[in-house]
Amino acid sequence: MGVFKAIFSGMGTTFRKPRLLIILYAVNLVFAGLVALPFLFIVQGELGHSLYGLNVQPVDLNWIGEAVLKYQAALPGLAAGLVAAGVVYTVLHIFLNGGIVGRLLDKEGPASLAGFVADCGRYFGRYVRLFLVSLVFLVLTLGVFMSLVSALFKPLSKAAITEWLPLILSNLHLLIALLLLSVVHMTVDYARIAVAVDGERKVLKALRHALTFLKTRFFRAWAVYLLIVVLTVAGTIVFYVLFGRLGAPSVAQVAAGLACMQIYIVFRIWVRTLFVAAQAEFYKAHPY
Amino acid sequence: MKKSIVRAVLMLGAALAVLPALSIAAQAPAAPAAGAPGLRYEIWVELDPAGQMLAGKEEIVWTNPTKDTVPDMLLHLYWNAFKNEASAFMREAAAETMFGGSAAPEDEGWGWVDVTDIRLADGTDLKPAFQFVTPDGPDHPDDQTVARVLFPVPVRPGESVHLRIEFRSKVPRTVARSGYYRNSFFIGQWFPKPGVYEEGKGWNCHAYHQNSEFFADFADFTVHITVPRGYVVGSSGKAVDTRTDESAGTATTTFRQSMVHDFAWMTDPRYLRIERDFVADREVTPQEYKETADLLGLPPDEVRLPDVKMILLIAPEHRSQIERHFNALRAALKYYGLWYGPYPYETVTMVDPPFRTGSGGMEYPTLFTAGTQVLTSRDVQSPEMVIIHEFGHGYWYGLAANNEFEAAWLDEGFNTYSTTRVMAKAFGPGAFGFRFNGLPLDWFVRVPKVFDYETNRVAAINTVRYDPVTAWSWEFYNRGSYGANVYMRAATVLSTLENLLGEPVWSRIMRTYHMRYRFRHPTEADFAGVVNEIAGKDMTWFFDELLEETRAFDYGVAALTSVEVPVQVRGVFDRNGAREEWTEKKIEDLEAAEAKAPDEGRGKALYRTTVVLRRFGEARLAGDAQVEVLIRFKDGTTETRTWDGRDRWTRLVIVSPVEAESAQVDPRGIWLIDENLANNSRSADGLRRNVVKLMTQLLFTVQNILHFFGSWS
Q1: Strand, helix or coil at B439?
Q2: Residue that terminates a domain, selected from B410, B425, B440
Q3: What does the alpha-carbon distance between residue B572 and residue B588 come to, in Å, rounded to a whole number?
Q4: Could you say which residues from 552 to 611 on chain B have a Cβ atom under 8 Å away from some Cβ of chain A?
Q5: Please, which of A28, B166, B316, B402 could form a disulfide with B410 given CB 3.0 to 4.6 Å?
Q6: What's the DSSP call for residue B284?
């Protein structure tokens, strides 16, 4: 299967499963609302009846400075809460991944909530193990490989005559890290798909399936991945351009801004499902 | 001790306040004073780039300007701060709690200065009477940044002593403000330099501390700098002669400068040297001269600026930013000159700091280092801000030469305040200079633009509880408190004082203070004295509350209610000799009748507006200062009240025919130092569109973060 065919085929699959998007969006919105609630209370409490609120900016240095001062004692607690929320959401998303993969691979009809939850439960244990394996995988590949890159770059940077060389090397280092990260992410995605497609119960075997699959068609698979990344970046640019053009905050503008932001979140969630759908199409076209 | 002296002088200043307040005609002439011309240096120095060594000879002629008989001299040997980990500088850096960690260079990167010979001009050897001392107490016994030399015969008042010193110095790799990298050298604080002799107190000569800068007397300098031929040299002062030695492959340039208290230089074979002229008549319009003269109450000739030779030494990779450098310097020369007094030297040299020499953003008389990067953004006002700031130190430190060890805010605070004003006037608000992996962040996302005074304020309100602004440099809680207090809090306090006194008075205060103490060593008390004198009132409380203490300033509106005054209240009343009882039912009937009555017959409704004001902070107003309160009514009318702010709270009650819409403390924004602007006002209405927008964006941010977490699980 060609790169574009996999992507278009994946798109078709995601468009046939709008309920999946609704479920994922609802989870994201509710969870985010819960996490943001204390901050929203702070904003409302401090600015809701203050004239300062008439002109407060989204990134308002003066007010942020005041809020940091006033809530500095609570900051460690808030930070810990955010980290805890991040961990909980990660676990929740591991659970949801089962539903995403399961429903996208299911050719039969729309993604029902019952079917979604059943798939979540079916794959949860394996996906947790796969997540833990992926962490090790990530540390090994990124840690070892990036240490080698650093060891190569450091003497060059140290001997630089101007700031150009360190700047270029530093960004090259970042680019390599990002590309490597994309490879690891893609590999884990395929392992996740292999668990469902091949019915593999052992996650290490599923990972081996993914690696074997990628061994012979790595660049095409990577192209699928990177093209979707490009799509994400393009969508993000479009969002920020549109969002930046919204004028002074009238009621309509605030409503339009909110709609714009939520559409962007839906787009990001859709892209996430597209990753899975396109890669699943690609994987299924070349069975293990 | 320090505080009581300040207070005494402030009281004296207040007594003098009966003098005509807005005149500065009586300002003292800008005559050379303490130290100059009683101090002369002639220095011969040769750089060995391969060994990173300096070989120097120095002649110092010091004339005792006091009535004391002086038996000795204390000399700064600043580079010994970089000699080992036992110096005060290194130990304080290691103990630092905020921007912490060792400042020690890598092996072979240590720097030091050795006095190899010290004699009187008649040949008397003073080396046996030369010893390291620790003037700041026993905390750092191994510090070698101050040495004492005992004279065979004490120097009597008006007499001079002529010293001949030979020294060898190792240039540090890069520690603070001085260093080398490959063939680039920045040489600051490099020669043995006497402290400042203070009558009745002795030598003021502190060790080199991590958080401190410098203090020295005005002097005449002649410096002969020898470097390998082909090296570009930039230096304090004016180059008067260059000679090459073909056999040695060296070039020696002689620089001269009178009435400065330090001398720094740099050299690098790759550098570009560009000269431009600041032509005052091209930069300042006749109208600007007139406005300045009117504002200051001075004859127009007194505000006229001189032409100045601007010299830029810049790395070739920053060639594209040459115009940015000169534009910023022109703005600085213009506004510092107009506001505080004309720049008194012929040249100003700005140095793009050599790569990895750690010398960026530092001031020396007639020379300063800027700082930029190869990738810059137009909206981020760097290098402009650093150029204006470091040039500005030529005024606040270079000319009004306070003791930076003991009162750093007098130069850093004044100069941060001045930089803020020049930046706002010449360039407007700028974007934050955030970077992502060395790339300007505003290449990728929109970065908010702010004025520097806003940034100053945020730092100020978050640091007030750590230290008073006036603490000695090395006695601050940590480096963060030092920086935020002496730079930003001090600047915010000065901006507040400006707002409080108004531009005409304030402009005269700053001009008078600068010109009166130009070529002198002003103290906090000197400044406070000028404030009291020009403002015509005692502002002692202001300095006490906001500089000498760690008191937060915060006035706000605690509550606002505006309710209709009832036509009749319940209860038993004795009226016209009869007793009547008003029940709820009776009142309802009355109100119903009122509602049915034609408009002209109906009583006008009245509203009782209650505003509760609170002093949330510890700092308290005094003198004739008041906090204004603006009450806005729903028909657009307003009423302004004042409160002296002494108590913890007060309640204002206003009865009016219209409901109140909002109440606002300090509506004119005088008290920039107020740590909570959000509580300065209270409105009857709830949620505001901008607040809703902020909340939706907050939610969106959290959604994005969560999605990111989810994508990687």
Answers
A1: strand
A2: B425
A3: 16
A4: none
A5: B402
A6: S
What the block records as the tokens of A98 is 């089962």
Query: Which residue in B450, B693, B698 is closest to A254 by CB distance?
Result: B693
Residues of chain B numbered 410-469 and touching chain A (CB < 8 Å): 437-439, 445-446, 448, 450, 454-455, 457-459, 461-462
Q: Which chain A residues have a beta carbon less than 8 Å from that of B707?
A: 28, 265, 268-269, 272
Cross-chain residue pair A164–B355, CB shorter than 8 Å? no
Q: Residues in chain B with pLDDT < 50?
A: 1-36
What is the sign, positive or negative, of the torsion defined by CA atoms of B565, B570, B575, B580? positive
Question: Which residues, including other chains, have CB under 8 Å from residue B68's CB and lie 6 or more apart?
Answer: B157, B197, B199, B200, B202
Asked if B511 and B339 count as a contact pair (C-beta separation under 8 A), the reply is yes
B712/A163 Cβ within 8 A: no
- Which residue range(s) make up the domain with B373? 39-425
Residues near B386 by beta carbon (within 8 Å), at least 6 away in sequence: B360, B361, B370, B371
Give the residue from B392, B425, B458 where a domain finishes: B425
Q: CA B459 to CA A66: how far, in whole Å?
A: 10
Indicate the average pLDDT of chain A: 92
Contact status, residue B331 vs residue B426, Cβ threshold 8 Å: yes
Is B319 contained in some domain? yes
**Does the residue B460 lie in any domain?**
no
- Chain A residue closest in CA terms to B712: A185
Nearest Cα to Cα of residue B521 among B366, B377, B399: B399
- CATH number for the domain including B620? 2.60.40.10
A60 SS3 class: coil
Using a CB-CB cut-off of 8 Å, the residues of chain B touching A97 are 713
Domain count, chain B: 2
Q: Do B374 and A162 touch (CB under 8 A)?
A: yes
Q: Which of B117, B119, B149, B153 is nearest to B132 (CA)?
A: B149
B610 within some domain: yes
Distance of alpha carbon A240 from alpha carbon A245, whole angstroms: 8
Q: Is the pLDDT of residue A225 over 60?
A: yes
Strand bridging mode B367-369 / B347-351: parallel
Which residues have C-beta within 8 Å of that of residue A147, sequence separation ≥ 6? Answer: none
Nearest CB neighbour to B706, from listed A32, A253, A264? A32
* Cα dihedral: B74, B79, B84, B88 (round 10): 50
Query: What six digits make up the tokens of A278?
Result: 């396109």
Do B193 and B44 share a structural domain?
A: yes
Contact B57, B166 (CB under 8 A): yes
What tokens does B688 get?
Answer: 């505001």
Tokens representing residue B17 in the block: 């306040």
Six-digit token pair at B593? 């009748």
Query: Which residues fall within 8 angstroms of residue B29, CB to CB, at 6 or more apart?
Result: none
pLDDT tens track for B536-574? 999 999 999 999 999 999 999 999 999 999 888 899 999
DSSP SS3 for B554: coil
**SS3 at position A94:** helix
- Specify whether the backbone of B391 is left (phi greater than 0), alpha (psi in -120 to 50) or beta: alpha
Domain membership of residue B371 (yes or no) is: yes
**Closest residue on chain B to A274 (Cα):** B711
Q: How many CA atoms lie within 13 A of B96 on its CB side?
A: 22
- Are B707 and A57 within 8 A, CB to CB? no
CB contact under 8 Å between A68 and B678, yes or no, is: no
User: Which chain A residues are closer than 8 Å to B454 by Cβ?
Assistant: 61-62
CATH code of B379's domain: 2.60.40.1730
Q: Which of residues 27-56 of A touch B (CB under 8 A)?
A: 28-29, 31-33, 35-36, 39-40, 43-44, 46-56
Query: What is this model's ipTM?
Result: 0.94
Q: Are B404 and B214 in contact (CB under 8 A)?
A: yes
Beta B39-48 vs B219-228: how paired, if at all? parallel
